[in-house]
User: Fold these one by one.
Assistant:
Number 1:
Amino acid sequence: MYWTERHIFACTGNHCNQKGAAKVINRLRFELMRRKLNTPVHMNTCGTIDLCDIGPNIVVYPDNIVFSNVEENDVPDIVAFLSGGEMPTRLLLNATTPAEMNREHFFAALRDAGNHLGESEIIALAGSYDLDRAWIDEQLRRGFMSKKPDEETTADTYAMTSKAMHRYRLG
Ligand code: FES
């Protein structure tokens, strides 16, 4: 925005809240005010960032970065970064983050299996990457996977969507 230097979106969706987002956000608001950063850094909450399994999540623009798995104790390092200090790289989500790489490997395996698996097969594949049924359901809700009846058997089949292909560079 033209009157701020940075814009932050801090997720307050259910999954992030269950893991302490409210405490993180309260501390972040307090620290931004205490350091008089609440004018150059504009913060809003939001309902999801589509990274529900690794929250609490915070997006920072124009840096175009996501801090994930943020805990209240991480807030001073985030605020130090927003003040011109070092990036807290341990919180930074990118393609080489272990959790993100694990998801990429799962989706690559799904692609290699023909991107068309039945329910028991997709659960088994996810399980081999330490991802559970709830995670699969989350991918369906967030549009990274789709579930459709097979044309012949009418049994549910699961596939990754173009959104997942783009995110994990699997197209
Ligand atoms: S609930 Fe925060 S990313 Fe989904």
Note: Residues 98-167 form a domain with the Arc Repressor Mutant, subunit A fold (CATH 1.10.10).
Number 2:
Amino acid sequence: MTECEICGSKAIKKAEIDGAIVNVCSECVKYGKVVVGPVKIRAKPIKDIDSSRYIDPKYPELIKKTREKMEMKIEELAKKINEKESVISSLERGHLSPSFNLAKKLENFLEIKLILEYNEEFHSSKGKKDNSLTIGDVVDLGELDD
Ligand SMILES: [Zn+2]
């Protein structure tokens, strides 16, 4: 966990305070100017109305691979989760983005994770190192979006 350099609670942002870049929590951010907010995934996320959930952009292969691993035909999977065969095949080809309801059904049935949260992504990218995100890390993540 990155600690807020002012009060010691969980830092979520970087802010410029008196010319120095420091990690700050949501409270202490008011003491400085924000330079880096939470890292957002910009790869065409399908946003939930009221939260930061989004569908994993790798859903087509996740669904297909898992289904194949379970040795199920598309029509079998469709029947199991009460969807049309055409819906499943469109999902697997990436022609259709699942709604959160449908994603939830697929998650439960296939035991995979399709619905992600920006926060999880943010924390896991921080988790790679003992130290906090550096500005460089943030720039690198940003460049993933082409
Ligand atoms: Zn603080």
Note: Residues 4, 6-7, 9, 24-25, 27-28 surround zinc ion (CB under 6 Å).
